[in-house]
Protein 1
Amino acid sequence: MAATEISSKLNALPVNAPWAYKPNYAELAEQNRATYEEVSKVCTFGEQPIGGLVVVRQMAPAYARARYKVVSNPIGLDTAHIALFCDGGSLCFGYRMGAGSVIEVYTD
């Protein structure tokens, strides 16, 4: 499957961020877990590009945020799906894209 086909398929999957404190939180969390299972097949943590995988590097945390640098994204996966991978399928408090391809996942 071509990279654009892969990214189109994965980018179409739901990502709910944030979902904490919403009335249907259990359903939103389950959708994120299911999406994470698919996204984790093309994402990994590392320091260098690895083949056709999306590679992210964990950075030093900031106050109430875990920080990740996107090392490579050859398939064009969108930020929401990369953030979901970084947070292990949760994103209960949300995320934001910072400067320089840095994703900040809110932890508190």
Note: Helices lie at 3-11, 25-39, 79-86.
Protein 2
Amino acid sequence: MKINPFPGKLTKTTLSLALIVASICVLAIYLWNGVIHEDFRESLTIEEAQSLVEFQLCKTTYVPSGIDPTPKILYDAEDVNIPELTYIRLQYRRVNDQEKIFEIYQRYTPDAGMRTTYPEMAHEGAKVILLDWISYPKFLSEAEMEVAMTRTQMASSVFQTNGTVWWLYEITDPSEYRSTMTKWIKDHVEYRILSYLPAEEIEKVTLSMLECSNP
């Protein structure tokens, strides 16, 4: 079931607020991508990764054609004593050139679920996350982020599937920034999928994970 999302049009006030949020989000992106970390490990087995977190890891049962179904698994902890700052990343790459196509992030959260409406700043915060993800490992400067925020157009939709609320964000323009993200929370685990996949493909990956497929 699709629920009508909030509007996504930027105003000057919203842009200013969004850029304040951006400075906070940049730090969060550094954590999500392993730039700042107390403990960082890569090329783990799923069993090794599971032993490092308290929650049950989930894997997608749907992988688009041409993408290696065996992900590279990474562990990143900004503080190993704080569950909210410890997460697992499943990175899926294209078979022919090993180009990163989508990543699934999982970490503990005290939140029980997501809402069907959020302030517009949260919408713009999602745009910041996508912009930094596609530019990684070279993060955008404040000036570059301001230009990118005004140039990009992003659509957002919210869905509810079997009681789980999940969001889909898609940068639709310009073409060099096109990317997608879904986000949901279930059983106090936050999931994010960031990708270059078309919206219909990231939806399939997301739906395959809503009923957690335990490895």
Note: Residues 183 and 192 are 4 Å apart (CA to CA).
Protein 3
Amino acid sequence: MIILAAWVVCSILTYGITFAHFSREYENNDTSGACFALFFSVFGPFGLVVSFISSGCAKHGLRFRK
């Protein structure tokens, strides 16, 4: 149960970091960034590490909606 809760928290953070990176770095108004962030968040802690590093240590912060 603890592993599942940790996975969900990591997925939420992954979505927020990835969506913030795509929406602020590329300034796109379509839903492709949100769809990619949602897909990437399924990978939980692995996706969190990759999105944190690839976004420049989350330089754009967290963002959950446009």
Note: The mean pLDDT is 91.
